[in-house]
Amino acid sequence: QAQLEESGGGSVQAGGSLRLSCAASDRSFRTYAKAWFRRPPGKEREFVAAIRWTGDSTYYADSVKGRFTISRDDAKNTVYLQMNSLTPEDTAVYYCAAHERLRVGLHAFEYDYWGQGTQVTVSS
What we know:
The protein is an all-beta fold. The chain is 0% helix and 48% strand.
């Protein structure tokens, strides 16, 4: 069972960038579909980005398309979320997630493994 740990969150001004990392303890993580979700203050958790285990397909929420990039490094058992042109609306707790099925999911209920979350705060 994979254990996921996020890092890289913090505070940044609008227009800035952050890169989130999510490291897994299980070597099988490389074969998992992986995703990032976020929970803005007072709102429900929402999908941000996902990547097929092969790395050849990525998916993004409309709100982050063109600004965020999901990638993975199998050698490091790590998935990343590069976030550019950040706005205050991106303020949230960000979670990485994974599951073992081939299909990449865009909904939280489709994911079995979750990190503890990392806070991202964007000030105007």
